[in-house]
Write a structure and sequence with these properties.
About 10% of the residues lie in helices and about 30% in strands. It contains 4 helices and 37 strands. It is mainly β and about 325 residues long. It has a 10-stranded mixed beta sheet, with no helix packed on it. The chain has a 6-stranded parallel beta sheet with strand order 10-13-16-21-24-27, with no helix packed on it. The chain has a 6-stranded mixed beta sheet with strand order 25-28-31-34-36-37. It has 2 domains: about 90 residues, Udp-n-acetylmuramoylalanyl-d-glutamate--2,6- Diaminopimelate Ligase, Chain: A, domain 1 (3-Layer(aba) Sandwich), CATH 3.40.1390; about 210 residues, Hexapeptide repeat proteins (UDP N-Acetylglucosamine Acyltransferase, domain 1). The radius of gyration is 21 Å and the shape is globular. The model has no long low-confidence stretch (mean pLDDT about 95). The longest helix is centred in the N-terminal third of the chain and has 12 residues.
């Protein structure tokens, strides 16, 4: 499920879409239509996707997308059913195309539709503090608590038995049952995705959402960014300490424990039953397996296999780390 909160203004004729973003249509695509943009895994035959790194060649080989923005040297990995659109900069081109479909996904201006909860139908469904603001089309389960000065913006879905602290902002998010989000959290803002430019940095649209599954706790002052072309997902019964940052597109497994001030760069996958010590950093586009322990202050820059304990920078096997630091 991608973000249902931004309106898709497609479909587009391929020829028009490519012209809009300044791509020469060498293959003479004319009447064919593209209905949406998606990642390699979730794309359907109506969609356009992108493929920018050989690391994802196995996913590219099975994509169902009809069109793919890619590089010349990667086109061989795509199936014959997927038409290749060769460009010099895949990510920049995909940002421009995504903006065509979702022109309002670039900015995160405040929600003008919010009202004091006392003036909405949700006042009977929750216990709440002072100055709680609720946007349009917010769904709230039974037995929820909402603290002072909290803003739940339009279209957010929150399950039953949830506790939302004070000074929390939630947007573009689905929260399942029995989740605690502690004071000062910001959930569902756009991620830190842009292309540096000397005159004006070019923002990457973020059309994904945040999904927080059952029985999670999100510590005070934590930030969880919504996804760009996929969702940011927190697994069941996962607990965050204070000031944890989860960047866009990360997939955090079930039963994980993440200590304070841990930071995740974008698009990494964390398995189940993972424990991470305070102030560790996880680089982007990595895969951390199940039952992994990562020591505090570690810097993870490579994939980690199941049932491994690591520590240090770069993070290495715990026994090796201890041996080298005696």
């Amino acid at each position: 499920m991608l973000n249902p909160f931004f309106k898709n203004v497609g479909p587009f004729d391929v020829e028009k879409l490519l012209s809009n973003v300044g791509i020469e249509n060498n293959n003479n695509y004319k009447k064919n239509k593209i209905y949406n943009v998606a990642d390699l895994v979730s794309a359907t035959k109506k969609d356009l996707t992108f493929f920018h790194s050989k690391k994802y060649s196995s996913l590219a080989s099975t994509t169902k997308a009809s069109y793919c923005i890619t590089l010349e040297n990667l086109s061989q990995f795509l199936p014959t059913s997927c038409k290749k659109i060769i460009v010099d900069n895949v990510l920049l081109t995909m940002a421009k195309i995504t903006k065509e479909f979702y022109p309002y996904s670039i900015v995160d201006d405040f929600d003008e539709s919010v009202k004091d909860i006392s003036k909405t139908s949700l006042k009977k469904k929750a216990k709440y503090g002072k100055n709680v603001l609720i946007g349009k089309n917010v769904k709230l389960g039974k037995n929820c608590l909402i603290g002072h000065n909290t803003i739940i913006e339009k279209n957010v879905i929150i399950g039953s038995n949830c506790s939302i602290g004070s000074n929390v902002i939630i947007r573009n998010t689905v929260v399942k049952d029995s989740v605690s989000i502690l004071d000062g959290c910001v959930i569902g803002k756009k991620g830190f995705g842009f292309f540096p430019n000397q005159n004006k940095n070019i923002r990457y649209p973020h059309i994904g959402i945040v999904i927080i599954n059952e029985n999670c706790e999100i510590g005070c002052g934590s930030t969880i960014d919504r996804g760009s072309l996929s969702n940011t997902v927190i697994g069941k019964n996962t607990f965050f300490d204070n000031q944890v940052h989860i960047a866009h597109n990360n997939k955090i497994g079930d039963n994980c424990i993440i200590a304070g001030q841990v930071g995740f760069a974008g698009s990494s996958t964390l398995g189940n039953n993972v424990m991470i010590g305070g102030q560790a950093g996880i680089s982007g586009h990595l895969k951390v397996g199940n039952n992994v322990h990562i020591g505090g202050g570690s810097g993870v820059i490579n994939d980690i296999s199941d049932n491994t304990k690591v520590m240090g920078y770069p993070a290495k096997n715990l026994r090796e780390f201890i041996k080298n630091n005696r």
